[in-house]
Write a structure and sequence with these properties.
Distance between the termini: 39 Å
Number of domains: 2
Bound molecules: nicotinamide-adenine-dinucleotide
Pfam families: DapB_N (PF01113), Gp_dh_C (PF02800)
Largest sheet: 8 strands, parallel
Subunit structure: Homotetramer.
Radius of gyration: 20 Å
Strand order of the largest sheet: 4-3-2-1-5-6-8-7
Strand content: 15-25%
Number of strands: 16
Catalytic activity: D-glyceraldehyde 3-phosphate + phosphate + NADP(+) = (2R)-3-phospho-glyceroyl phosphate + NADPH + H(+); D-glyceraldehyde 3-phosphate + phosphate + NAD(+) = (2R)-3-phospho-glyceroyl phosphate + NADH + H(+)
InterPro entries: DapB_N, GlycerAld/Erythrose_P_DH, GlycerAld_3-P_DH_AS, GlycerAld_3-P_DH_cat, GlycerAld_3-P_DH_NAD(P)-bd, Glyceraldehyde-3-P_DH_2_arc, NAD(P)-bd_dom_sf
Structural class: alpha/beta
EC number: 1.2.1.59
């Protein structure tokens, strides 16, 4: 253990937790002191192969040991050993861990599946990093909200945003998820409008006029956003393309790509771990301005876009870096984010 590095624990090692663990392990100012697993499944096996210390609920330690695992201790032991816990348990489960983090005086980050009330600060690296400096509890907003903040924030800074209308075609489940659906339907999610995504953006940028609708579709690759944004000052489609291309976590997608499946294939060709696309994928040729309104499509890789935001949130909360752009640059460099088409 390197005493100069911030000690990070990952509570819940699933889709998000395993990616946050790998991203934290790449940083020179933080280290993974352990991850928690509730069952000795294939993810526990890969965690052991990567050399992460595995912690388990006290009443499950014996079943892990019977399966040949070395267990470092209970989840309580892991929390005690950490400076900060990244809670990546399923939505609405993380809230039940809050009392433990409070008891042990450990800082904690929750994910977007938790209610906004779980922490005083909802977080996005570009839009409100400064609010999280030194904070004890932060929620990194969901994949869709992160994707929306990354485009709305720079547009609002440069041109002023009058209003945002977005329709989100949501993936039905993650690729490894065998319990979600639909397999043959478009499901209004929810029927009653707006969906929670627009209000969730307001937890970070309260002044933005935004409403959203969402539809669940039978795909596991990515979410797709159809955006219509009215800006306060005039600009051209070219201006917006240049603005987006200048942002650290937006990738302009071109080269004949017109589908989420091709973006995932592109990620594979780039040699990305787990074919992750951590950046917003804005379809360059879709960006258009008509009668003062901006339109575009963007695809959001739900499994990975929030991962660099978790790393930045740790850096802010532990006061390792005061300047958000420096943290973003450091995280991006370590993960290999930033190659532009
Ligand atoms: P997941 O189901 O893939 O992983 C959760 C892990 O936590 C599983 O390994 C599960 O066994 C474990 N777990 C369950 N109860 C636990 C407990 N009490 N203590 C420790 N571990 C426990 O879930 P996920 O998709 O990684 O989602 C985690 C959070 O991230 C949720 O809030 C979710 O809304 C949010 N999120 C998910 C996505 C996505 O698309 N998957 C995107 C952004 C944010």
């Amino acid at each position: 253990m390197d005493m100069s590095k911030v000690k990070v624990a990952i509570n819940g090692y699933g889709t998000i937790g395993k990616r946050v663990a790998d991203a934290v392990a790449l940083q020179d100012d933080m280290e993974i002191i352990g991850i928690s697993k509730t069952r000795p499944n294939f993810e526990a096996k890969t965690a052991a192969m990567k050399g992460y210390n595995i912690y388990a609920p006290a009443d499950k330690i014996d079943s892990f040991k019977n399966d040949g695992y070395t267990i470092a201790g209970s989840i309580e032991d892991m929390v005690k050993a950490a400076d900060i816990v990244v809670d990546c348990t399923p939505g609405k489960i993380g809230v039940s861990n809050k009392a433990l983090y409070e008891k042990e005086g450990v800082k904690a980050i929750w994910q977007g599946g938790e209610s906004k009330d779980i922490a005083p600060i909802s977080f996005n690296s570009e839009a409100n990093y400064a609010d999280a400096i030194g904070a004890d509890y932060v929620r990194v907003v969901s994949c869709n909200t992160t994707g929306l903040c990354r485009v709305i924030y720079p547009l609002d800074q440069k041109y002023g945003v009058e209003k945002v209308r977005v329709t989100i075609v949501r993936r039905g489940g993650d690729p490894g998820d065998i319990k979600s659906g639909p397999i043959d339907a478009l499901v209004l999610d929810p029927i009653k409008l707006p969906s929670h995504h627009g209000p969730d953006v307001k937890t970070i940028m309260p002044h933005i006029n935004i409403t959203s609708a969402a539809i669940k579709a039978p795909t596991s690759f990515m979410h797709l956003h159809v955006l219509n944004i009215q800006l306060k000052t005039e600009c051209s489609a070219e201006d917006v393309k240049n603005l987006f291309a200048s942002r650290p976590r937006i990738r302009m997608i071109a080269d004949g790509i017109s589908a989420t499946a091709q973006i995932i294939e592109f990620g594979r060709d780039l040699g990305r771990p787990r074919n992750d696309m951590w950046e917003n994928c804005v379809f360059r040729d879709s960006v258009s301005v008509d009668d003062g309104e901006l339109y575009f499509f963007q695809a959001i890789h739900q499994e990975s876009d929030v991962i660099p935001e978790n790393v930045d949130a740790i850096r802010a909360m532990m006061s390792l870096e005061k300047d958000n752009l420096k943290s973003i640059e450091k995280t991006n460099k370590s993960m290999g984010i930033g190659f532009k088409c």
